[in-house]
Amino acid sequence: MIEVKNLSVKYQNIEALSSVNFKVEAGDYIGIVGPNGSGKTTLVKALLGLVSFEGKIVFQGESLSRFTLHKHIGYLPQKMSFLDQRFPATAKEIVVSGVYCCKKFPKRLTKEDYAAAEAIMKTLKITSLKDRPIGKLSGGQQQRVLLARSLVHSPSVLILDEPTIALDPQSRETFYETVQKLNKEKHVTVLLVSHDIASVGKYASKLLYLDRQVIFYGTFEEFCKSPRMSEYFGVSQHLICHRH
Ligand code: ADP
Fold first, then answer.
1. Which of 29, 31, 58, 77 has a 20 to 30 A CA-CA distance from 163?
2. Going from the N-terminus, what domains does the chain have, and what CATH number goes with each?
3. Is 197 exposed, middle or buried (0-12, 13-18, 19+ CB in 10 A)?
């Protein structure tokens, strides 16, 4: 579905990604992990067409030119990074605003857009929140509203960048269970950026370990057995795998 070939990204003199290669199959759930500064967000930006890069990103056989992936991708950043708690909108208004990504001018909302918002809110079991002001919802509820917003245009790929960083452990589990259901039942391909390898190992079908380059790409079980990763981590690899 997505093929990344020899992807390199430079910011002035910093090489954030160097010759990254991997393939995403439709229906995959890929956890993208790695230390701070390892290029995870840069990889997401490249997929969203927000940074210039060398190499190729191919989506369903077509080479990516800037911005063309938008209608195929749902993107959920870290909650706190963009939600203003005082923003005067209801949950449903936030959800429906997700369709603007894919509309041509004049960008008017239609009955179908509101129906799509209602439908995704039902799937995510947040219909009861629809008329509540966004700022009055709990962190977990807000993140589900934003998840609905990223899915309202029915993308085939969902990209999540540290989506549960501001959530308590229980809301985090519920959130990941919802994403797993979307992957299993609605066949949404998921790319999840996280620093928490144990959580990723629990839900993702594959793990991509980045450190400017691809250090590892395979299943969590292969990750745990990989001699290369033992060398890379020393003892801590076993701690991560043990927790799982
Ligand atoms: P991660 O998401 O894994 O923490 P990033 O992709 O944010 O990593 O960053 C990778 C490297 O690129 C880091 O060294 C970071 O400082 C650098 N970097 C990221 N964004 C910029 C930018 N806009 N300008 C210059 N350097 C950047």
1. 58
2. 1-72+157-244 (3.40.50.300), 80-155 (no CATH)
3. buried
